[in-house]
Structure formats: C-alpha cells, structure tokens
C-alpha cells in the first residue's frame, strides 16, 4: 500500500541495518581472535626465551639450578606470563629445562596453559 505522500517506503534501510547487525559481531570476533592469538604467541615466545636462558646458564660448569630457575622466572615475568613454574635438571652430558606458564587470555578455550622445553649440552671441565 502506498502512503499518502505517493512514495513506497524504502526497504534498503532495514536490509542494510540487518546486514550490519549480523556482520558486526563476526568482525569483532575476528579482531578479538587476532589479538588473542598475538597474546598467546607472545607468551609462548617468552617461555621459550626463559627456557633457553635457564638452559644456557645451567650448562656452564659450576652453575646451580636455583640461579638458572630464578633467571627463567624473571624472563617469563617480564613477558607477562602468569603462573610460571620452572623445572631444571643437570644430567652428565646435557641440561634439560621445562618452563610452564599461563597466557593471559581474555577468553580461555583451554589453550592458555603452555609448556616449553629447552636442552643444552653441558660444558665439561678439562
């Protein structure tokens, strides 16, 4: 039915509004997902650097596990990783370090717990 003004109502406004109402949440989820991926990747790289630091310190003759673990905790804390634990072991020929932590994600889908391992050859005294 045509109103008294002689024009049919414009239906484009309704269609365009509905498109944005459906598209906007998808765009926001993509942006949030990209940010969350970046935070997760940064936490993983930080734990890798912490594990490598501890392995390097522990591989030197005369080093102790306490100082290596403390160094790994400092590196992980500087990167914003939460609930960090470090496990270091000196074997006869190599050192093994395992660093675990939690990435500070807004939406956790079970991916926030991370574990990184580093191994280095042990320097032997002559």
Walk me through this protein's architecture.
This protein has a single domain, classed as Pantoate--beta-alanine Ligase, Chain: A,domain 2, CATH 3.30.1300. The protein has a 3-stranded antiparallel sheet with strand order 1-2-3, covered by helices on one side. 49% of the residues lie in helices and 21% in strands. The protein is an alpha+beta fold and 126 residues long. The radius of gyration is 27 Å and the shape is rod-shaped. The longest helix has 48 residues, at 12-59. It contains 2 helices and 3 strands; from the N terminus they run H-H-E-E-E. Helix 1 packs antiparallel against helix 2 (65-78).
Pick out its properties.
126 residues, alpha+beta, Pantoate--beta-alanine Ligase, Chain: A,domain 2, three-stranded antiparallel beta sheet, 2 helices, 3 strands, 49% helix, 21% strand
Question: What is the compact description of this entry?
Answer:
The protein has 126 residues and is an alpha+beta fold.
Shape: rod-shaped
Unreliable stretches covering 5 or more consecutive residues: none
How many strand segments? Answer: 3
Q: Give a short account of the largest sheet.
A: 3 strands, antiparallel
Give the count of helical stretches.
2
Can you identify the CATH class?
Answer: Alpha Beta
Question: How many domains make up the 3D coordinates?
Answer: 1
User: What is the SS-derived class?
Assistant: alpha+beta
Can you give the mean pLDDT? Answer: 88
Termini distance?
Answer: 99 Å
The CATH architecture term is 2-Layer Sandwich
Strand percent estimate: 15-25%
CATH fold-level name: Pantoate--beta-alanine Ligase, Chain: A,domain 2
């Amino acid at each position: 039915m045509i109103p008294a003004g002689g024009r049919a109502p414009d239906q484009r406004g309704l269609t365009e509004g509905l498109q944005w109402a459906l598209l906007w949440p998808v765009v926001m989820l993509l942006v949030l997902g990209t940010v969350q991926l970046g935070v997760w990747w940064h936490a993983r790289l930080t734990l890798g650097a912490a594990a490598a630091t501890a392995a390097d310190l522990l591989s030197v003759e005369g080093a102790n596990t306490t100082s290596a673990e403390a160094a790994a905790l400092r590196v992980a804390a500087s990167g914003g990783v939460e609930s960090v634990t470090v496990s270091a072991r000196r074997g006869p020929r190599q050192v093994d370090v395992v660093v675990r932590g939690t990435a500070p994600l807004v939406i956790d889908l079970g991916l926030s717990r991370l574990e990184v391992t580093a191994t280095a050859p042990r320097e032997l005294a002559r």
